[in-house]
Amino acid sequence: MIRIANAQGFWGDSLEAPLEQLRGGPIDYLTLDYLAEVTMSILQKQYARDPQAGYARDFPQMIERGAKEIVERNVKVVANAGGVNPETCGEAVAAALNRAGFAGRMKIGVITGDNILNRLDDLLARGIELRNIDTGEALETVRSRVRSANVYLGAFPIAEALGRGAQIVVTGRCSDVALSLGPCIHEFGWKRDDWDHLAAGVVGGHVIECGAQATGGNCQVDWETMPDLAGIGYPILEAEPDGRFAVTKHPGTGGRVTVAGVTEQLVYEIGDPRSYITPDVIADFTTIQLRQGGQDRVQFWGIQGRPATEFYKVSISYSAGFKASGTMTYGWPDAYKKAKMADQILRTRLERLGLTFEAIHSEYVGANACHGDFLSGDPPPDLAEVTLRVGVRGSDPAAIERFTRELAPLALNGPPVVTYPSGGKPKVEEVVAYWPALIPKNEVRAAVTVREA
Q1: b/e per residue, 321-337, with b = 16+ CB within 10 A?
Q2: Taking the alpha carbons of 278, 176, 211, 235 in that order, is the dihedral positive or negative?
Q3: N or C, which terminus of the chain has less Cβ within 10 Å?
Q4: Residue 417 confidence (pLDDT) above 60
């Protein structure tokens, strides 16, 4: 059995969680998931400005802070912190270990090959159209505006790096579940056609990949009675060679691990539960058996898998114009009516200025922002305050900029009892859109390098 502790669900998650996982009890592996689709485009923009950037800079800092525990407790670390620049991230990790006084004490594995941005023209010229999975459009229609293109690699390159002695493994884009599946493949010797075992590893990885969502965070079930959310523990996967596993957390930490809470995470972002497609296997979530196995412990078994597809998924981002959004807060009495009138006034002024947008959207925070226009008639007249939030999107940055200048005047020439937020004039921002595609696996080659720290 191995214990895999996850401590990051996204880039921006708790800075203390990795250290708490390292120090809270025995673990064999520490995984950290930094990457989301939009994150790759952000990192690519950073890399374009600075060839030493393009990775999650939090990661080397964490390694420096936790180096003593990593070395002395022989914990292996696997993270997709490499972003679009895994090699430089690996160098930064080595420098962090040196600063912490542990130079030469471990090996660092770096996995590349996921970034195909510079290969797009060649791929398109050879008839690999990278059509949008959702719309069927060919990538050629937005090629000039593409900002990033990364393949979701699988878990076997991670297993290879571990097999070659790496104690810290840095990847670029890979499937979220690969971070914990890779250690299972390495430790248990699972083969590429061990479909049920691989599927079990995928399900276990899926449960812990979003960090504290598996231990009571962002949980609808019994959230009011959740113990010590301020000190919530992050999940630990206890994996067995035969595909059985349990999810738990360190003793004494906050939160709760229950069947109900874990099930919420299970159905998060999965699509068809019978066919959860990953680079390494298709997992059938309808075969999952689970039960409460004690306090803060849920056991899993019986998971089945099917052969993987012949394709990798590609996450592509592209520039899709510009946007801006701003807010005005209106107070009692008749706060909702004032916010609606302000929205009408703003739209009329924009129209009179001849400004057109691809989209304009208004929300009334405090009345219906989260659930849409579900109200029958106006909400009760005694709402203490309502925030009008208006956003626009379009291809003309000058029009977006002019919109940003039309909100502030409402403070004096619109409805009364208003607060203009201290953030000031809204900013014009580039819209980065997502383009999912498929690429034949024989077009992608992952490369694994292992070096002394």
Answers
A1: bbbbbbbbbbeeebbbb
A2: positive
A3: N
A4: yes
Specify the number of domains making up the chain: 2
Choose one of 280, 309, 338: the last residue of a domain: 309
Structural domain contains residue 123: no
- Integer-rounded Cα Rg, in Å, for the chain is 25
Alpha carbon distance 114, 82 (integer Å): 11
- Which uninterrupted H or E stretch holds 208? helix 195-208
Q: Write the pLDDT tens digit of every residue in 72-103.
A: 999 999 999 999 999 999 999 999 999 999 99
Residue with token string 């009008």: 388
Which are the contacts of 404, defined by CB distance < 8 A and separation ≥ 6?
Answer: 324, 326, 425, 426, 427, 428
> CA 205, CA 138: separation in Å to the nearest integer?
32
Identify the pLDDT of residue 39: 87
Q: Which residue segment(s) compose the domain that 390 sits in?
A: 317-431
Q: Would residue 442 count as lying in a domain?
A: no
Query: Is pLDDT above 60 for 296?
Result: yes
Q: Using DSSP, state whether 44 is helix, strand or coil.
A: helix
* Alpha helix positions (H), 126-171: 156-163
What's the pTM value of the predicted model, to 2 decimals?
Answer: 0.94
What pLDDT score does 367 carry? 85
- The DSSP symbol for 235 reads P
| 369, pLDDT greater than 90 | no
Examine the domain organization and report whether 62 and 170 are in the same domain. Answer: yes
For residue 409, pLDDT beyond 90: yes
How high is the pLDDT of residue 421? Answer: 72
Q: How far apart are the first and last CA of the chain?
A: 28
Do you find a cis peptide bond into 409, omega within 30 degrees of 0? no
Tokens matching residue 319: 């520039």
Alpha carbon distance 299, 290 (integer Å): 5
- DSSP codes joined into one string, 4-19: EEE--SSTTS-SSHHH
